[in-house]
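TA notes, week 10

Several of you asked for a full example with nothing omitted. So below is the full record: structure tokens for the whole chain, then the designed sequence directly under it. When grading your own attempts, check the secondary structure regions first.
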């Protein structure tokens, strides 16, 4: 999958690069990240490829902003991507490679690393749970009777909740193993 496909999906309604970045921070952050330095060049490329159009629009908060919208060709490209079937690849998980090499540092540092990692994911899990609670409070059809335009968005939230909860549980297991190994070591 590429950023290009995600942008095409988001450009069903006019959005600026900043609007898109906010959506990444709010919606996609548990499974995809993108910086403005990636978003703007990708938006420009979509426009050069005829998949989107842009125009300047007045802004209540300062200078005019550039707003992008998907073209008919962009819609066809977006749908073709969806019809091509699931793109299942290998995720790159930086922290997991760090865990692989944790034996290079003292046990106390290993414990601190995993404790920090757990806290990071616990915070992220709480944020997603807040989204879940708010959505349930705002829509009585939530979660299983949502209309199609919301149902599949809820599916991504559901997986995010499950994956992050599993990661927190994994961190807890690792932390307990490290604590037990520290207790077993002879005092020098």
């Amino acid at each position: 999958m590429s950023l290009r496909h995600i942008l095409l999906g988001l450009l069903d309604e006019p959005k600026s690069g900043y609007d898109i970045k906010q959506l990444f921070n709010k919606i996609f952050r548990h499974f995809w990240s993108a910086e403005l330095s990636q978003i703007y060049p990708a938006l420009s490329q979509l426009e050069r490829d005829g998949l989107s159009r842009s125009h300047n629009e007045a802004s209540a908060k300062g200078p005019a902003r550039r707003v992008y919208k998907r073209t008919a060709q962009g819609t066809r490209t977006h749908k073709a991507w969806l019809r091509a079937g699931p793109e299942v690849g290998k995720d790159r998980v930086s922290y997991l490679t760090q865990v692989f090499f944790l034996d290079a540092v003292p046990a106390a540092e290993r414990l601190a690393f995993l404790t920090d990692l757990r806290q990071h994911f616990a915070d992220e899990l709480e944020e997603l749970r807040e989204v879940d609670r708010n959505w349930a409070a705002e829509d009585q059809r939530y979660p299983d009777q949502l209309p199609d335009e919301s149902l599949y968005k809820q599916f991504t939230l559901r997986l995010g909740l499950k994956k992050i909860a599993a990661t927190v549980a994994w961190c807890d297991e690792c932390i307990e193993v490290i604590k037990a190994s520290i207790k077993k070591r002879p005092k020098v």
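Residues 17 and 46 are 12 Å apart (CA to CA). Use that as a sanity check on your answer.
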